[in-house]
Write a structure and sequence with these properties.
It is built from no helices and 9 strands. It folds into 2 domains: 56 residues, no CATH class; 52 residues, no CATH class. Strands 1, 2, 3, 4, 5, 6, 7, 8 and 9 form a 9-stranded antiparallel sheet that branches. Helix content is 0%, strand content 40%. The N and C termini lie far apart (30 Å). The chain is mainly β.
């Protein structure tokens, strides 16, 4: 089951590289703008909602429900972290890993599903 839900997006930063193939992947704010996450388990500010090329506006959902690309099999209601390609994978709980959200409906590698974004403190 898929649904559309409200959320808050940040769209005032530019893509630091070509992110045209990165829609619905975890994104982070770096010096100069927005890029996808590149280290497994790292913090992400949210999920990229569009597919900007370099120096185009990047729209990042940081509160609410979002679509997300899976990088591994994730069960229904599974807690996720990022992999090194910005995709959602099961949260390992290992030291330094950051849980970023909870998927609503699980899926397999490459699937796009919905998830609740966690608020970081």
């Amino acid at each position: 089951m898929a649904f559309d839900a409200a959320g808050l997006n940040y769209g005032s930063a530019l893509a630091t590289t070509d992110l045209s193939l990165s829609q619905y992947k975890f994104a982070k704010l770096v010096s100069g703008g927005i890029t996808t996450t590149t280290v497994a388990g790292e913090f992400a500010m949210g999920v990229l909602q569009n597919n900007p090329k370099q120096n185009e506006s990047a729209n990042v959902r940081f509160i609410g429900v979002t679509k997300i690309t899976l990088g591994a099999t994730v069960p229904d209601a599974g807690i996720v972290q990022t992999d090194n390609q910005g995709r959602a994978v099961p949260f390992t709980g290992a030291a330094g890993m950051v849980p970023l959200g909870q998927v609503i409906n699980g899926g397999q590698v490459g699937d796009i599903t919905e998830m609740f974004l966690f608020q970081s403190v």
